[in-house]
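Mods, move this if it's the wrong board.
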Amino acid sequence: MKNLLTGVAALAMTAGLGGAAHADYTLNILHLNDVHSRIESISKYDNTCDAKGEEEGKCFGGVARVKSEVEKLRAEFAKDGANSLLLHAGDEFQGSLFYSTYKGEAAAEFANAIGYDVMAVGNHEFDDGPKGLSDFIGKVNFPIISGNIDVSSEPVLKGKIKPYVIKEVGGEKIGIISTLAVDTAETSSPGEKVIFTSSEDYLKQAVQELTEQGVNKIIALTHEGITKDMDLAAKVAGIDVIVGGHSHTLLSNTDEKATGPYPTLVKNPDGKDVPIVTAYAYTKYLGDLKVTFDDAGNVISAKGDPILLDASVTPDATVLARIKELGAPIAELKAKVIGSLGADVDGSRETCRQKECAMGVLVSDAMLERVKDQGISIAIQNGGGLRASIKGGEVTMGDVLTVLPFQNTVATFQLTGADVIAALENGLSQVEEGAGRFPQVAGLKYSWSRAKPAGERVVSVEVMKDGAWAPIDKEAVYGVVSNNYMRSGGDGYKVFKTNGQNAYDYGPNLEDVVASYISEHPDFTVALPGNITEVE
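Not the wrong board. Structure tokens:
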């Protein structure tokens, strides 16, 4: 991805994008994306940080730090008479016990406390169906927008999601338009009455509508991922800035972990550079972009960098107290020690959506161990269902629930060998985009090539037969274990839904299965067995 970004977009501009203007207008854009219920501060593993970590200055983010930093910057802007907006590029829902316990209620309360100006709909806002999103919209005091979704046939959402908003800031009209990934029907639960349309077509239409209303400064607040953002910037004229989310990408000029520069620039159909920004995830960073427009609405300068919300940022005391209050009922469950690990277990997005990862091995092995006496020999877990790493040493139930926050159940069924291969092809079909469908496995070995087109990437598949690895038999029937989300067709695994035989979707909760597995294997160290091999 780094080569892709630097090859297309070059450097973040500090000297400006063009010539001087007669009536320049500067807007400071603060932004977050993919909060994923990280109400409390997080550790370097992206899971909940503990009191000891806070004492040692090893924690990041959390909504109390976001509140504090936003208030500080807004005060500075006000003192200088500067213009600002605070934007949220989607995905408040899902990811911690705060969401499992309070659903969108706590998310809404803290989002209101932070004071976003506009938020985009993220795919996970549909995790509890249209009603979950509707309830959230009813509780927040800022607009939540998305333009390429049609909710007119969904009663609980009809009329509640605007396609765009026009904000007047410092005497200038700022148009904010939004799009959502069209595969949300596969990655979440919007239901059949929510219709998704082409984001490119919608953005072109929205730009035209805003232009006809005299708006010449347009921000696209998207939840589609960095690759799609770059594609849209190149294809849609009239967008001045893209503030994105969904892919959890870090753009930065100073952080060595960054995928590309902040902002990343892509030329639009008119040859103008479009600045694109996104700020990782989990409240670890607050994006901070200063954009200057000339009197015709052209971007002449775009510069900034994400702010790392580390221990140097003092959390807001009022918000912190409220977090402690809401956290009290779940503190006992979070603190319960369920076992120990001999070493760190990597569950990072960067690894688990691209190749075999330790967390994928742990979860797949745990599932297979639980149901092996039921004639099940293959486990397949989507990499996107793994949401954090776990540090070696003592493991709490809170750690496990941060990794597996979706409350999925273990699902068992039977598939032919040919359908197993089809499932793997689906899992490998969007690896370039970092899609969550990447298949982590147990009881199965496969090799694949990203050089081949999607649908033709599987090179070989082997299963255990008579104690040795043997090529999979396309005609044979195999017992498979997965989670109920995938079994119902989630992440594109439609073959599980349509062809799964003798399915049972109501097994124990996946987090309980993994917790039991860790408990039964004290100081367990996860080794990569080499079940997944990428070849040229």
